Amino acid sequence: EGESLESWLNKATHPTNRQEDWEYIIGFCDQINKELEGPQIAVRLLVHKIHSQEWEALQALTVLEACMKNCGRRFHNEIARYRFLNELIKVVSPKYMGDSVSEKVKNKIIEMLYSWTVAFPNEAKIADAYQTLKRQGLVMS
Amino acid sequence: NYDFHDDSDEDLLE
Questions:
Q1: Residue B1: its pLDDT value, please?
Q2: Do A36 and B14 make contact, defined as CB atoms within 8 angstroms?
Q3: Which of A15, A56, A72, A129 gets the most CB atoms within 10 Å of its CB?
Q4: Shortest Cα distance from B10 to chain A (angstroms)?
Q5: CA of A106: how far to CAs of A14, A89, A98, A109, A122, in Å?
């Protein structure tokens, strides 16, 4: 009890915790819901992991998906900001990190972005970010 | 409940 967001996320994305990661993922989501600034802190931590090497990045994206389902409107508000969406664009776009990132990570980000444009049709910033990638020919529909 | 809502944001990366 009383684990910090950072320690929950480190456990959830640690390669040696592959079997019991789900327990840590839910622990991370629960901790977000307990803290006043949970979503803001969590999103910054997730960005750092998404910019790490492949396994941690993929696992962080799985954690992000769980947060979108379990952490409600407060969390959605943080995702629907360019401050966060730009970090995803940096990973996918060859103008930034795209050339040194695995296809698996980039494709998962694109799929997630697309799913958010469907789930949150009135969140214009999410649609803008997706269109930016589409204009650059980075979306294989 | 006290809902600290910070609306500041960046510009979209092109």
A1: 40
A2: no
A3: A129
A4: 5
A5: 20, 9, 8, 5, 24
Q: For chain B, how many residues are written?
A: 14
Name the amino acid, one letter, at B5.
H
Residue pLDDT, tens place only, A9-41: 999 999 888 888 999 999 999 999 999 999 999
Whether residue A43 contacts residue A79, with contact meaning beta carbons closer than 8 Å, is answered with yes
Compute the mean pLDDT over every residue in chain A, rounded to the nearest whole number: 95
Q: Mark A85-96 as b/e (b = at least 16 C-beta within 10 Å).
A: bbbbbbbbbeee
In angstroms, the CA A41 to CA A19 distance is 26
A34 touches chain B (CB under 8 A): no
Match 């698996």 to its residue by tokens.
A104
A interface test, pick of B6, B10, B11, B13 with most A CB neighbours within 10 Å: B13
Alpha carbons A103 and A99: distance in angstroms, whole number: 9
CA atoms within 13 A on the CB side of A89: 25
Task: From chain A, pick out residues whose CB is under 8 angstroms from the CB of B11.
Answer: 82
